[in-house]
């Protein structure tokens, strides 16, 4: 199970959750230790580059940035670089509410 397993379960039930950023992958935009609120993806406006999302792949949960969007697929990455390959929207469970 991943670090955000409980958060994903709550998001699947339509609940807003708060999580703590535990890694530096979003810095400097979102520093380590920041508490962010996530809403279920299906309750959010359409995703756009720059959004912070909660993503699960290969039983690994991560907070990542949306880098680009194409029909039916999303390129995610860290503050420094995009990840290899494309993500399925079905693996994105929450979108951060950042000011």
Question: Would you write up a description of this structure?
Answer:
- With 99 residues, the protein is mostly beta strands.
- It has a single domain (5-97), classed as Umud Fragment, subunit A.
- The protein is 8% helix and 38% strand.
- It has a 6-stranded antiparallel beta sheet with strand order 1-2-6-3-4-5, with helices on one face.
- A hairpin with a 2-residue loop joins β3 and β4.
- The longest helix has 8 residues, at 5-12.
- The mean pLDDT is 90.
Any descriptors?
six-stranded antiparallel β-sheet, 6 strands, 99 residues, Umud Fragment, subunit A, mainly beta, single chain
N to C succession of SSEs = HEEEEEE
- Spatial arrangement of strands, main beta sheet: 1-2-6-3-4-5
Could you name the CATH topology? Umud Fragment, subunit A
Shape type? globular
Low-confidence stretches: none
CATH architectural category: Ribbon
Overall number of domains: 1
The CATH H-level homologous superfamily: Umud Fragment, subunit A
Rg, alpha carbons: 12 Å
Question: What would a concise description of this structure say?
Answer:
The protein is mostly beta strands. It has one helix at 5-12, and strands spanning 17-20, 35-40, 52-57, 60-70, 73-77, 92-97.
């Amino acid at each position: 199970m991943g670090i955000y397993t409980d958060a994903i379960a709550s998001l699947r039930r339509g609940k807003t959750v708060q999580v703590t950023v535990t890694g530096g992958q979003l810095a400097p935009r979102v520093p380590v230790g920041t508490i962010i609120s996530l809403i279920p993806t299906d309750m959010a406006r359409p995703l756009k580059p720059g959004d912070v999302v909660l993503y699960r792949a290969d039983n690994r949960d991560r907070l990542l940035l949306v880098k680009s969007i194409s029909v039916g697929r999303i390129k995610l990455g860290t503050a420094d670089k995009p990840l290899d390959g494309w993500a399925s929207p079905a693996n994105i469970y929450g979108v951060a509410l950042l000011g």
